[in-house]
């Protein structure tokens, strides 16, 4: 079953109708272009109607219309001729370049140029008069000129389309960058919120559970004291974070961000919450001060490790070790691993994810998990410790910070 022909464009229909009306008007007035032709004046209408019908295909089948239009133009040369027929042929050449395939757009201007040169040389050799150059000029106006015009218009359209596509791609990339920036900022604020508040809330949950489970006024009073201290500290941290969110100055980090100098206070707070914590800072006194992002990341990793030890560690000593070999700051936190007696706070696993993200953002490494205790008695039961280790590059050139 043959495929149905595509419907002609409305503009093509208007061009065909207007050209046909103009051609019939010229024919009715007796205006023609040539003399002494084999066919009579009435035959002029045949190529005129054929060319008008081909105008309907100028956009849907431009190359077919051009081939058939060339035959109609040749047939018109055997009649007195009609100007409308020639003008419609020039439009078919233009449309074949503009709406045809890229190969046709490259081939048609070359072909029409060669035809123009051949016609000029041929008629010049035949007539041997300078007036023969006019034939070449007319041929160029009918074929080569509309072909080159179509090339120029097509080039401008393709350039405009490429510019539009580039603009859309640029807008899409900008939107992707904005989305990634928002996502990264939300993740950063989520880490800050978790690291600042989780420790205090965990201590409050554990001590409040102990106060409810033990009917001892002294224990209850001590638990309430710890709860109050953690509540006040957590509220202060929350207010500081809210201040950062409300700040419109564009600073990504607070002016008073925690540093390694605050680890002593952090350890003391952990001891007040019931942990047996030891801070072992083996860095050389003349060691280079880590950059602020590295110091903040190390502080938060220690803070979250102590929070996890408070919630999940078995009774026993917790050790925080800081070393600074060449080009890196290393953080190691070990805590007893095993069943935890008494009340404990639930965990979500967000702390480990946050610590790993902090190390990755600085181009460092992070590892956490249980391992055999190297200090356990070899003759006794094999003990395990939970080990958190992070290596953070100190040299900014080694850091791959993701904005």
What this model shows, in words?
The structure is a single chain. With 403 residues, the chain is an alpha+beta fold. It has helices spanning 10-28, 45-55, 62-76, 83-99, 102-127, 132-213, 217-246, 263-272, 292-312, 350-361, and strands at 276-281, 317-323, 328-336, 365-372, 384-393. It has a five-stranded mixed β-sheet with strand order 1-2-3-5-4. The longest helix is centred in the middle third of the chain and has 82 residues, at 132-213. It starts with 9 loop residues before the first helix and ends in a 10-residue tail after the last strand.
**What overall form do the CA principal axes indicate?**
rod-shaped
Major beta sheet summary: 5 strands, mixed
Structural class: alpha+beta
Strand and helix order: HHHHHHHHEHEEHEE
Strand order of the largest sheet: 1-2-3-5-4
Share in β-strands: 5-15%
Radius of gyration computed on alpha carbons: 43 Å
- In which range does the helix fraction lie? 55-70%
Give a count of the beta strands, DSSP E runs of length 2 or more.
5
């Amino acid at each position: 079953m043959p495929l149905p022909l595509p419907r002609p464009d409305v503009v093509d229909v208007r061009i065909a109708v207007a050209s046909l009306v103009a051609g019939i008007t010229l024919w009715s007035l007796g205006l023609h272009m040539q003399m002494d032709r084999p066919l009579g004046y009435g035959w002029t209408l045949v190529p005129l109607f054929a060319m008008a019908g081909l105008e309907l295909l100028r956009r849907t089948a431009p190359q077919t219309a051009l081939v058939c239009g060339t035959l109609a133009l040749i047939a018109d040369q055997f009649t007195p001729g009609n100007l409308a027929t020639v003008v419609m042929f020039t439009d078919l050449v233009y449309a074949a370049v503009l709406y045809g395939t890229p190969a046709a757009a490259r081939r048609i201007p070359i072909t029409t140029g060669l035809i123009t040169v051949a016609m000029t040389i041929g008629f010049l050799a035949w007539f041997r008069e300078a007036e023969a150059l006019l034939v070449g000029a007319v041929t160029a106006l009918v074929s080569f000129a509309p072909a080159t015009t179509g090339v120029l218009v097509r080039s401008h359209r393709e350039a405009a389309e490429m510019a539009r596509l580039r603009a859309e791609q640029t807008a899409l990339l900008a939107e992707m960058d904005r989305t990634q920036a928002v996502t990264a900022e939300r993740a950063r604020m989520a880490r800050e919120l978790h690291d600042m508040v989780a420790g205090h809330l965990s201590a409050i949950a554990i001590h409040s559970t102990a106060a409810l489970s033990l009917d001892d006024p002294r224990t209850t009073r001590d638990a309430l004291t710890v709860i109050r201290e953690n509540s006040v500290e957590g509220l202060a941290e929350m207010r500081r974070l809210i201040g950062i969110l409300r700040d419109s100055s564009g600073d990504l980090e607070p002016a008073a961000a925690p540093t390694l100098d605050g680890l002593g206070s952090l350890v003391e707070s952990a001891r007040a919450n019931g942990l047996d914590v030891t801070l072992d800072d083996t860095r050389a006194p003349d060691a280079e001060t880590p950059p602020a992002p590295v110091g903040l990341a190390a502080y938060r990793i220690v803070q979250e490790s102590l929070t996890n030890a408070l919630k999940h560690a078995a009774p026993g000593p917790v050790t925080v070790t800081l070393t600074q070999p060449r080009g890196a700051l290393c953080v190691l936190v070990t805590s007893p691993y095993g069943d935890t007696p008494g009340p404990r706070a639930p965990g979500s696993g967000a702390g480990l994810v946050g610590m790993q993200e902090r190390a990755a953002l600085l181009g460092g490494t992070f590892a956490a998990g249980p391992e055999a205790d190297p200090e356990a008695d070899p003759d006794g039961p094999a003990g395990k410790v939970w080990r958190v280790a992070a290596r953070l590059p100190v040299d900014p050139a080694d850091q791959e910070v993701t904005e």
